[in-house]
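Notes from hallway chat w/ T.B., transcribed later so I don't forget. T.B. wanted the structure written out for a chain they're using in a teaching module, and asked if we could keep both sequence and structure tokens in one place. Agreed to drop them here.
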Amino acid sequence: MADPPPIPGIENIPAIAGIDKVAPVSPLAPAGKQVPSAVSGRGKVSAVDVGAYWINHYKRCGQKPTDYCDSLAARFAAAMRSLGHRVAFIRGEQDASPLQWGAWTDKNAAGIDTVEFAFLATHSGTHGRELPGARWLYWWLGTFDSPDGCIVSTIRLDPNTWAPVTPATPVVTMRLGEGRLRWVVLDCCRSLQLGAENERDADTRAVLAASHPQLTWGRCMDGANMVFGFTGLSSDASWTAERGLSFGYRAGRGEALAESWIDEAYSHWLDDAPVAMTVGRSADDALRRIKSESVKSPGAKLRAADIDSYRWVWRN
């Protein structure tokens, strides 16, 4: 078997096309135990289940190794655990599998839809292709190093070229929230790309110029409330290796999630530009969620057909 192709700019990006509809979601599982809130003397934070995934070495898949993905993911989980939340699992290196993120397998053991809060640290990128009629298709691709495969993506890709199989009618391969999932952190490059924001390479800027999170992720939102990530490259450095920990502390004690991610994942010195995206029944609903949604006060899970609006915030 030929070696897999290198990921084309594993930190690439998307544009506009129209959002595919997806299947209805099932209700969220009953809340767990109550955790004292560190935000105020009153009120409680419902404990949630957390799953973390990381890859630092890519022996099968031939990507450049990282140094701090384990720290990012595991310390997020540790912070959440310290505040009374349950860490259901941590999967690293070859034990982190694309099947745990796939639409048909994410409710199996260690799948993202078996927990409320999932955190992934690896290489990734948003990619785009121009279609006839000056339309653009955008998709996200993340890398693994598992016997189950090297990549996970938002739409079906050719396993040999990693290009869309049917770009005019993309097949959705990730459905976030059909089970228990509410919040997803993609601590990866270009995971929530905003056009050319924080992008310096001229060719990549041209491909990603029209992209935004709804175009990449809208077809996959099926019950999950929020996705957190970056526009442009994100750092793999000792200076920023604590962002998972610091975000976990703030999220776990019930602070507003979008604000917490934007604060803790931003780095002026290393050009980390964090992004948070939410869904809503309306523009006003999405705005309320992006301002105030928290583990302490989660928004209602929305079926894909009920989503009417998307909202995102970022810092650059």
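Follow-up for T.B.: The CA atoms of residues 95 and 122 lie 13 Å apart. Might be a good example for the class.
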